[in-house]
């Protein structure tokens, strides 16, 4: 959509953006370009609002240091909230009482973009799958723009994306909860496990937020779902779009699955989506499992999902094969860091819940020195015990959940345990424990926010500490 067309939607509208993070600054600029009167409000003090002065120079009002009582008033037309801000804060409560729409920036991006949009969500695997899809579409000559929760705010691309491009968006439950008309042409739900319940309060709200990805789809669209996940199967009953399944346990009627050590894609799509694949056979062997460059059994699921999305987008099979044979992973997702004295170090800092950590632990046959810990969200971690018993020789913990994880290590019969203060200390401790042939794995099973600003910061510190081992005595 051009700026001129955007003006027909938002020219003269009063917009309040809550939260001056990257996405807040992006959507504020986008709305300003469309002629809206924009006010950005952040509860952080002025000296912590890095973009405030720059936005003011661009003609955008910025208020830091708290939420004024009148920041939301009857003259406001729309409120755009940072995804992480809870709905219980006063400005959002007031907006809802006044009947003012409260959305996240992905809703604005959807409204303004002319490019078709592919949405990917799930409790685990979003970034790897989104990156895979982007690579497959690029290899297939389909001009993807990868954005959303993966790094670049979706609204930053909204006015620039052309009709011959495609927006490939990683989406969180926080972002999806704040959507109304949002409708991707292809919507992919990887899995749903207990996560972010401190924000959503109930599992029902979490599942409902994820399912909003499909809410406005119709039979001309495609939903890609995990057949092996019970919640995904149950949601299928409410979905009106065409469904492509992926499964590592069953041969599905249409979608991607495993057979005799190979990935197979089977399709019987109708309408315009079938037209994109009209020259391809209904069933094709994609690659054999031994050809895959990306380690980890859980990543096979991500690849199956990416294949479904890429094929429904019209990417040719050779493009998919090339990516699957060469793509070795994403930073902070089971990322190989280095091998030192016969010990391999892996950074899986993005594993912010027990399910993700379980998948990482189950990816290796060699003995593991496991580093875990972080923000306490009230989880007991009992599901990790069988994985710890089967794969782990030593446990190093830190952060708010350290004592819980030490208790789970004891449940698993692991004698070698240690509590440390930081990830840096954990690497030093791991060096003293690990022996040739072992794996040192940072896969925290927890969010980072008790000690670090993000999982990225935590992962970078881990990697820096590992690299320093080569120069230390």
Automatic annotation (TrEMBL):
PANTHER family: UDP-N-ACETYLMURAMOYLALANINE--D-GLUTAMATE LIGASE. NCBIfam families: murD. The lineage of its organism: Bacteria, Bacillati, Bacillota, Bacilli, Bacillales. Pathway: Cell wall biogenesis; peptidoglycan biosynthesis. This is UDP-N-acetylmuramoylalanine--D-glutamate ligase. Belongs to the MurCDEF family. It holds the Pfam family Mur_ligase_M. Its main location: cytoplasm. Its EC number is 6.3.2.9. One of its GO terms (cellular component) is cytoplasm. It comes from Aneurinibacillus migulanus.
């Amino acid at each position: 959509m051009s700026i001129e067309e955007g003006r027909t939607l938002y020219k003269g509208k009063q917009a309040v953006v809550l939260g001056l993070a990257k996405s807040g600054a992006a959507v504020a600029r986008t709305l300003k370009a469309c002629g809206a009167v924009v006010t950005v409000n952040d509860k952080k003090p002025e000296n912590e609002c890095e973009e405030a002065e720059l936005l003011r120079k661009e003609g955008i009002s910025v208020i830091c240091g708290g939420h004024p009582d009148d920041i939301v008033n009857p003259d406001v037309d729309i409120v755009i909230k940072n995804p992480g801000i809870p709905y219980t804060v006063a400005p959002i409560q007031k907006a809802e009482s006044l009947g003012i729409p409260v959305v996240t920036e992905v809703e604005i991006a959807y409204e303004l973009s002319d490019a078709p949009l592919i949405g990917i969500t799930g409790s685990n695997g979003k970034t790897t799958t989104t990156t895979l899809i982007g690579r497959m579409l690029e290899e297939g000559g389909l001009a993807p723009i990868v954005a959303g929760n993966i790094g670049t705010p979706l609204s930053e691309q909204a006015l620039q994306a052309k009709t011959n491009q495609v927006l490939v968006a990683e989406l969180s439950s926080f972002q999806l909860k704040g959507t109304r008309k949002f409708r991707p042409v292809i919507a992919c739900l990887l899995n749903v496990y207990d996560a972010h319940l401190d924000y959503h309060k109930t599992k029902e709200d979490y599942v409902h937020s994820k399912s909003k990805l499909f809410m406005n789809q119709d039979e001309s669209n495609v939903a890609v779902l995990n057949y092996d996940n019970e919640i995904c199967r149950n949601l299928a009953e409410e979905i009106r779009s065409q469904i492509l399944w992926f499964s590592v346990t069953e041969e599905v009627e249409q979608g991607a699955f495993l057979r005799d050590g190979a990935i197979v894609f089977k399709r019987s799509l109708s309408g315009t989506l079938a037209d994109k694949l009209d020259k391809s056979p209904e069933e094709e062997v994609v690659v054999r499992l031994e050809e895959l460059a990306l380690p980890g059994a859980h990543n096979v699921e991500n690849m199956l999902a990416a294949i479904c999305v890429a094929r429904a987008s019209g990417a040719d099979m050779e493009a998919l094969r090339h990516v699957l044979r060469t793509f070795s992973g994403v930073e902070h997702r089971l990322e190989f860091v280095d091998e030192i004295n016969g010990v391999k170090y892996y950074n899986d800092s993005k594993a912010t819940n027990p399910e993700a950590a379980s998948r990482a632990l189950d990816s290796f046959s060699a003995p593991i020195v496991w580093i875990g810990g972080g923000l306490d969200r009230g989880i007991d971690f009992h599901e990790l015990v069988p994985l710890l018993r089967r794969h782990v020789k030593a446990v190093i913990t830190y952060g708010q959940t350290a004592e819980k994880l030490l208790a789970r290590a004891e449940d698993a019969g692991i004698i070698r345990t240690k509590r440390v203060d930081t990830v840096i200390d954990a690497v030093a401790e791991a060096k003293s424990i690990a022996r040739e042939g072992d794996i040192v794995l940072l896969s925290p099973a927890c969010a980072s926010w008790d000690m670090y600003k993000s999982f990225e910061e935590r992962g970078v510190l881990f990697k820096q500490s590992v690299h320093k081992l080569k120069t230390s005595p």
